[in-house]
Amino acid sequence: MTDAPFRFPSDEELMAGPNALEEPDEVAADDALPALARAEIVVPDFPEDFRAGFACLVGRPNAGKSTLTNALVGSKVAITSGRPQTTRHNVRGVVHREDAQLVLVDTPGLHRPKTLLGKRLNDLVRETLTDVDVVAFCIPANEKIGPGDRFIARDLEQVRAPIVAVVTKADTVSRQALAAQLLAVNELGDWADIVPVSAVSGEQVDVVADVLMGHLPPSPPLYPTGEVTDEPQAVMIGELVREAALESVRDELPHSLAVVVDEILDPRTDRTGSRVKGAGERLQVRVSLVVERDSQKAIMIGKGGSRLKEIGVRARAGIEELIGRKVYLDLHVRTSKDWQSDPKALAKLGF
Ligand SMILES: Nc1nc2c(ncn2[C@@H]2O[C@H](COP(=O)(O)OP(=O)(O)OP(=O)(O)O)[C@@H](O)[C@H]2O)c(=O)[nH]1
Ligand SMILES: [Mg+2]
């Protein structure tokens, strides 16, 4: 190498020699390209009157928001459980139609917060509400309208977007009880529409989609065709572990449980990470279950590790279904004292 200062070549120099910047004629250039490089980038056509936009699902914890989100999308994008506060971040799911695209934002249940985590979750929902085209307020058919619903209804008065009241879990009550609930919901506020639905039987799921899509503005599609969520795979994996843990523990533990994906190692592509002997080509996933106290840690692990094993088996099945290959899942339980109320711990856990 010489230290001669860089000199930009003259036009003559550029046009001479093997790197000449001559305008090649089109046919020749095309022939010179390998077949793959010539593949066209296809911008999908969409009708002129296409609609697209965002719908936010809100409601009390356990109202059935995530189950409805999954039913609308047609595949599992959000975890669900019979315990309140299952959802802890906004989950986006996309419903694709020929004439419209509905981006659902499933949110944590709105509730009276007892911890800093609870407050953060409520704040997240309120922020989301200011930014969507339509809101689906979910109210279960099988529970009397209570102070929680009234509180949310009052909150929603401030929202500019139209609000659709969705009466969920319609399969759990008689026609008569459903009719009574629809009337009660009508009294609760000023709704653009009121729709009963069952995410479990599938009844009226299409109607909910139609009604929400009717409130979307004209817009080109926002997501590529076929993409059902933008959740990163690592987040989905952590959520599936948390769902399995929520299924396994039947006491007050769920609130105190957080999940952290510590490592995902693919032995097919990663030659540097510490590979587990005997795991073969399986994707290696290491996840920590974080609880607030040592006593909870013992509950989570169970007698002789039985509960942790049960959680692992269940979670692994879900993860393998998600990614379509075999997984080696390594679960750890650790304690982070009172993490739900500790700003530093919350930050570490991503809240
Ligand atoms: N029978 C019946 N059960 C339902 C229906 N939708 C939801 N559930 C059940 O209700 C419980 C709560 O459902 P989720 O979808 O997790 O509720 P959520 O509103 O997302 O709850 P959070 O995330 O905690 O706010 C679960 O046990 C579901 O199986 C339904 O249409 N019919
Ligand atoms: Mg949920």
UniProtKB/TrEMBL annotation:
Subcellular location: Cytoplasm; Cell membrane
Main localization category: cytoplasm
Domain Era-type G, first and last residues per copy: 51-218
Cellular component GO terms held in the UniProt record: cytosol; plasma membrane
Membrane topology, from the record: Peripheral membrane protein
Region (G3): 106-109
Region (G4): 168-171
Alphabetical keyword list: Cell membrane, Cytoplasm, GTP-binding, Membrane, Nucleotide-binding, Ribosome biogenesis, RNA-binding, rRNA-binding
G5, as annotated region: 197-199
GO biological process, one term: ribosomal small subunit assembly
Keyword Membrane assigned: yes
Region (G2): 85-89
InterPro entries: G_ERA_dom, GTP-bd, GTPase_Era-like, KH_dom-like_a/b, KH_dom_type_2, KH_sf_prok-type, P-loop_NTPase, Small_GTP-bd
Binding site for GTP: 59-66, 106-110, 168-171
A molecular function (GO) term: GTP binding
G1: annotated segments: 59-66
Subunit structure, interactors included: Monomer.
Family membership: Belongs to the TRAFAC class TrmE-Era-EngA-EngB-Septin-like GTPase superfamily. Era GTPase family.
Functional summary from the UniProt entry: An essential GTPase that binds both GDP and GTP, with rapid nucleotide exchange. Plays a role in 16S rRNA processing and 30S ribosomal subunit biogenesis and possibly also in cell cycle regulation and energy metabolism.
PANTHER family: GTPASE ERA, GTPASE ERA, MITOCHONDRIAL
Protein name as it appears in the record: GTPase Era
Species: Actinomyces urogenitalis DSM 15434
Gene expressing this chain: era
